[in-house]
Amino acid sequence: MTLRYLLDTSIVSDPVSRKPDAAIVQRLDEHGPECAIAAPVWHELTYGCRRLPKGKRRAALESYLRDVIRAAFPVLPYDEAAARWHGEERARLEALGRPAPFVDGQIAAIAHANGLILVTTNTKDFARFKELTVENWSKRRARR
Description:
Elements: E1 5-7, H1 9-13, H2 22-31, E2 35-38, H3 39-50, H4 56-72, E3 75-76, H5 80-95, H6 102-113, E4 117-119, H7 123-126, E5 134-135
Parallel strand pairs: 1-2, 1-4, 2-3, 4-5
Helix pairs in contact: 3-4, 5-6
């Protein structure tokens, strides 16, 4: 199956949150084979897990990352095409007085360079990027 979606951290971490969003879980089940994650998302997930103290929660998250996320989703790199687009967008946004967090730019660039739809609950954070299609699979109100 062809890749169609790039999942942001907010989407892949939702199923193991205290109150998972049923709409996100359903869409992941439906579209899982069409999904990938960006290398910076893998970094955020790994970093967040490793910051937790050793215990049941951390062990459960380590298992989820290894057995679910890495097993299901390819990790796409921040390559030359992504870096070029990111550099152009970063300069454009700064000139407009609307800079974006660096990691958001990397994730957006990987989606753009691979022709993928970026899926996130933080649509406002990614709306400033041009030529980027963004979807929110949550039924909850988007985070502002």
